[in-house]
Amino acid sequence: MRVLAVDPGLTRCGIGVVDGVPGRRLSLVEVGVIRTPSSDPTPRRLVAIEDEMRLWFERHRPEAIAIERVFADTNVSTVVGTAQVTGVVMLLAERRGLPVTMHTPTEVKAAVSGSGRADKAQVTAMVTRLLGLSTPPRPADAADALALAICHVWRGSVQHRLAEAAAAHGTKPSGIPSRAPRRGAAGSVRAVPAGSRATTVRPNPGAPRP
């Protein structure tokens, strides 16, 4: 299964793509952060995020989309901006017929570290270990996106089996795609210099894809 996961935000939007199935080694495809200047009007920032996000969809052709579910807090402007970016990602996914799943931060922490109360340092350490990275992904938004992708790979497989069982009994499936996951060995990773809007980490060119 190839999952594209998004940690939504207007100023920094974490995005990561991971290949894998439960019980096998996970593989990093690409991770990065889409940035927009706070001085720009919100519509322009959303267009910039949409343009960059579309390139990720086209470049990696994910089979499922995972988005962090954000809860309201005292910073209303942050919540509104996050919700707006979430809407952009959902729109891009729906136009491509891709299933979208929301995961809470607690679900992600529990899936990756075994504890829903894990701090960011613990989550980052586990992401680094699970993906076999030589250095921890930075910034935190990138690590959060990868943790979200890992969570969905593991949870999504279970949902897929439930969907197949539901289909066999004539009930409505969950929408998890039935395409076979890509196979192959994971490649090493390298840092890519920051661009105008995104900083990414990708496997070495020519490395086989799972």
TrEMBL record:
Its cofactor is Mg(2+). It catalyses: Endonucleolytic cleavage at a junction such as a reciprocal single-stranded crossover between two homologous DNA duplexes (Holliday junction). Binds 2 Mg(2+) ion per subunit. Keywords: Cytoplasm, DNA damage, DNA recombination, DNA repair, DNA-binding, Endonuclease, Hydrolase, Magnesium, Metal-binding, Nuclease. It comes from the Bacteria. Mg(2+) 2 binds at E68. Its main location: cytoplasm. SUPFAM superfamilies: Ribonuclease H-like. InterPro entries: RNaseH-like_sf, RNaseH_sf, X-over_junc_endoDNase_Mg_BS, X-over_junc_endoDNase_RuvC. Mg(2+) 1 binds at D7, D141. GO terms for biological process: DNA recombination; DNA repair. Transmembrane segments: none annotated. The active site is at D7, E68, D141. GO terms for molecular function: crossover junction DNA endonuclease activity; DNA binding; magnesium ion binding. The RuvA-RuvB-RuvC complex processes Holliday junction (HJ) DNA during genetic recombination and DNA repair. Endonuclease that resolves HJ intermediates. Cleaves cruciform DNA by making single-stranded nicks across the HJ at symmetrical positions within the homologous arms, yielding a 5'-phosphate and a 3'-hydroxyl group; requires a central core of homology in the junction. The consensus cleavage sequence is 5'-(A/T)TT(C/G)-3'. Cleavage occurs on the 3'-side of the TT dinucleotide at the point of strand exchange. PANTHER family: CROSSOVER JUNCTION ENDODEOXYRIBONUCLEASE RUVC. Homodimer which binds Holliday junction (HJ) DNA. The HJ becomes 2-fold symmetrical on binding to RuvC with unstacked arms; it has a different conformation from HJ DNA in complex with RuvA. In the full resolvosome a probable DNA-RuvA(4)-RuvB(12)-RuvC(2) complex forms which resolves the HJ. This is Crossover junction endodeoxyribonuclease RuvC. It comes from Intrasporangium chromatireducens Q5-1.
